[in-house]
Amino acid sequence: MSNENYHHENLKADLIRNGLKLLDEEGYENFSLRKVAKACSVSHTAPYRHFDSKDDLILAIAIEAHLKFNQRLEEAVNKHPKDNKSQLKEMGYAYVKFFVENPEYLRLFFLSDFANNLKKMNHETLLNGEQPFNTFYQAIERCQAEIQSGEGESVDPNAMALSCWGLVHGMAILIAKKDFSYDGDYLELVRKVLWGGTFLDL
């Protein structure tokens, strides 16, 4: 079996995996299908079997990242099927853990020169119910409804969403970029903040 035939069996997956690494290292302007092909040890024309352009490949990278991220959030929800507050806490922990373990996704989604382009892409996979923000916001709405029905208080779901997201996003960036110096287990510290602090005390 030739080297290229071997790679072709999983070429699309290889292009996405190596493309993410290359995009993270070189940025959008220096990213090219030719460079990704070289990283995959295939001819420079091989990527065009699956992708029309570098933007097409980057979109595929973003879609895969969104699906993986959303899966982590749904797993967090499923750990506490009858406890809405615990769902949000577990999702917050999963959020930080995902981006600390995959800082290249954090940079792609929020910190890269391509991040703004991703927000403008009207791709159905990025807009439908599998989008991570939808999973998060649905949990916010469930928690908000429970608080209002139980205590009669008026809770703005957008304020709750901003508070929850802002906290975990800030922790993810500080830890992933190593801006917060700590000798212990970062993720255990995150769990302590989410379960032992004032999180969700609205």
Automatic annotation (TrEMBL):
Tell me the domain of life: Bacteria
Short name of one Pfam family for this protein?
TetR_C_33
Q: What is the lineage of its organism?
A: Bacteria, Bacillati, Bacillota, Clostridia, Eubacteriales
Native organism is Desulfosporosinus meridiei (strain ATCC BAA-275 / DSM 13257 / KCTC 12902 / NCIMB 13706 / S10)
Q: Which SUPFAM superfamilies match?
A: Homeodomain-like, Tetracyclin repressor-like, C-terminal domain
Protein name according to UniProt:
Transcriptional regulator
Q: HTH tetR-type domain: from which residue to which, for each copy?
A: 9-69
Q: Keywords on this record?
A: DNA-binding, Transcription, Transcription regulation
Which sequence positions fall in the DNA-binding region?
A: 32-51
Alphabetically, the GO molecular function entries are: DNA binding
